[in-house]
Design brief:
Helices cover 0% and strands 59% of the residues. By secondary structure, the chain is mostly beta strands. Strands 2-3-4 form a three-stranded antiparallel sheet, with no helix packed on it. A two-stranded antiparallel sheet has the order 1-5. A hairpin with a 4-residue loop joins β3 and β4.
Length: 61
């Protein structure tokens, strides 16, 4: 099943310049940090503060 491309946006200003807190674990074999889990806390760089995210489908331009 193919899913449509999507993005996450700030619920306040609509930008997609948002990040999540996450856990990373050191992988000794690959010698790099591996993403282990993302947390619910979202941050908007444009608003410079906490936000909640809105999931939006990307449409073809």
């Amino acid at each position: 099943m193919v899913t449509a491309p999507m993005t996450y946006q700030c619920r306040f200003c609509g930008t997609n310049d948002v990040v999540l807190d996450a856990w990373a674990k050191w992988d000794e074999r690959d010698q790099r940090w591996m993403l282990e889990d993302t947390l619910q806390a979202a941050y908007c760089r444009r608003c410079d503060g906490e936000t909640s995210l809105v999931e939006r489908a990307l449409t073809a331009a």
